[in-house]
């Protein structure tokens, strides 16, 4: 009887092991892969948002530079006017 049990044990455990592996693979497919897909979606979304921000900054950069240039010109003009004022009145 014991010898028969020892002989039958691999015949019982191998299909059980295969079933266990199949169940683990199913769990992996049902749980981890959707999580990975969600993570991938989040990463893609963040990358798209970063790209949009960079594009917006690139679009706004000439405007900002023009405003700075205008400010610089106005400042230069004020300095020239102040110089003229001081030269004229002293």
Folded structure, characterized:
The radius of gyration is 38 Å and the shape is rod-shaped. Helices cover 98% and strands 0% of the residues. With 90 residues, it is mostly helical. The chain is built from 1 helix and no strands. It has a domain at 43-90.
Task: Characterize this entry briefly.
This protein has 90 residues and is an all-alpha fold.
- Helix fraction bin: over 70%
DSSP, total strands: 0
Number of H- or I-type helical stretches: 1
Which radius of gyration do the C-alpha atoms yield?
Answer: 38 Å
Main structural class = mainly alpha
On the 0 to 100 scale, the average pLDDT is: 90
User: Order of SSEs, N→C?
Assistant: H
| Assembly classification | single chain
Main location: membrane
Membrane topology: Multi-pass membrane protein
InterPro entries: MetI-like (IPR000515)
Keywords: Membrane, Transmembrane, Transmembrane helix
Defining key terms:
single chain; ABC transmembrane type-1 domain-containing protein; 90 residues; 1 helix; mainly alpha; transmembrane helix
């Amino acid at each position: 009887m014991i010898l028969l049990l020892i002989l039958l044990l691999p015949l019982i455990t191998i299909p059980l092991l295969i079933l266990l592996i199949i169940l683990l693979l199913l769990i992996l497919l049902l749980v981890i892969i959707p999580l990975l897909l969600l993570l991938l979606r989040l990463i893609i979304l963040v990358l798209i948002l970063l790209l949009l921000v960079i594009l917006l900054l690139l679009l706004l950069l000439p405007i900002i530079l023009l405003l700075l240039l205008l400010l610089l010109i106005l400042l230069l003009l004020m300095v020239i006017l102040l110089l003229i004022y001081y030269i004229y009145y002293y």
